[in-house]
Amino acid sequence: MKSHFQFSNQERSGIFLLFAIIIAVQCVYAFVDFSNDEIPTENKELEAFKEELDSLRLVKIENRRPKIYPFNPNYITDYKGYTLGMSNEEIDRLHKFRAGNQWVNSTKQFQKVTKVSDSLLAKISPYFKFPDWVTNPKPKPNFHNNSYSKSNEPKVYEQKIDLNNATASQLQKVYGVGEKLSERIVKYRSKYNGGFVADVELSEVYGLSSEVIERIKNDFTVKTPRPIKKYNLNTATRDELVSIQYIDYEIANHIIEERTLREGFKSLDELTKVEDFPIHKIEIIKLYLHL
Fold first, then answer.
1. How confident is the model at residue 261 (pLDDT cuts 50, 70, 90)?
2. Which of 133, 169, 179, 270 is most exposed, with minimal Cβ within 10 Å?
3. Is there a contact between 255 and 175 (Cβ–Cβ < 8 Å)?
4. What are phi and psi of 5, to 5 degrees?
5. Mean pLDDT of the chain
6. CA neighbor of 224 nearest in space, from 189, 184, 195
């Protein structure tokens, strides 16, 4: 090791000189500013570049916003209403209105039912899309000379026509039932082998108001119902329950849970106490159940 640290006077002088040069260079690098404060820029090009960045940023923000497409306000779900900016109370008012088998047929009626603000209505109403028979109603023919027109006199069972055998032309004699609605009634009836089970199924036909249904029931009724299988509500299995229209596996599980808690249902109307049960469809569901 000693041989590595033995230097002559000339070698030591060279080492000290090298250290001095290194220190001098470091001091110059540390204390002398070599930067040029004046950076040549083209202001016009820089402004144009900034504007382009801003426009691209706005486009990206716009693309992130949820798109709104034309829709029928009668079918606004909880999530749809949330994305539109409606409050829970406004959505609940609409659902309660629809549960009574009523339809919103205008922007003014939508605000009356939901009580949304004018600003929100102005924002979402341009996307409302109502059916053609609402936006472009055809003049209703005058049926004052036929036997079914506006007769308020109730008919007995024998006087009524079997709804499962009625023709579209016979249905059109009811005040408020035109060509389109009569075709929908016949088309709905044709979906099932045997037709209607009961008069209450008229509520399943799109576009029939409760007033028109009552007028139809005054002249027509189901005399030859299609055969269906009914299940005992207190013994039906989950798989049997889900075979019923409007009951899925989740609702079937809730029915069985409620049935266990109650030690059996005493009435079919107690189904309204089941969690998430489609209350507005209970009359249809009751057709397939018994106690």
1. very high
2. 169
3. no
4. -115, 20
5. 85
6. 195
For residue 187, which phi and psi values (nearest 5 degrees)? -65, -40
Q: How far apart are CA 86 and CA 63, in angstroms?
A: 22
d(CA 76, CA 95): 8
> What is the mean pLDDT of the segment spanning 202-222?
91
Residue 12 reports pLDDT greater than 90 = no
Which residue's structure tokens are 């189901």? Answer: 222
Q: What's the sign of the alpha-carbon dihedral 87, 131, 124, 67?
A: positive
Q: How confident is the model at residue 192 (pLDDT cuts 50, 70, 90)?
A: confident
* Block residue for tokens 């107690």: 270
User: What number of CA atoms fall less than 13 Å from residue 129's CA on the CB side?
Assistant: 6
Q: How far apart are CA 125 and CA 103, in angstroms?
A: 16
Residue 259: CB atoms within 10 A of its CB come to 18
Q: How far apart are alpha carbons 188 and 182 in whole angstroms?
A: 10
Closest CA to 204 of 161, 160, 245: 245
Q: Read out DSSP for the chain?
A: -GGGG---HHHHHHHHHHHHHHHHHHHHHHHS----S-----HHHHHHHHHHHHHHHHHHHHHHSPP---B-GGG--HHHHHHHT--HHHHHHHHHHHHTT----SHHHHHHHH---HHHHHHHGGGB---HHHHSPPPPPP-TTSTTSS--S---GGGSEETTT--HHHHTTSTT--HHHHHHHHHHHHTSTT--SSGGGGGGSTT--HHHHHHHHHHEE-SSPPP---EETTT--HHHHHTSTT--HHHHHHHHHHHHHHTS-S-GGGGGGSTT--GGGHHHHGGGEE-
192/220: higher pLDDT:
220
Mean pLDDT, rounded, for 125-133: 81
Query: Does position 181 have pLDDT exceeding 50, yes or no?
Result: yes
What pLDDT score was predicted for residue 91?
92
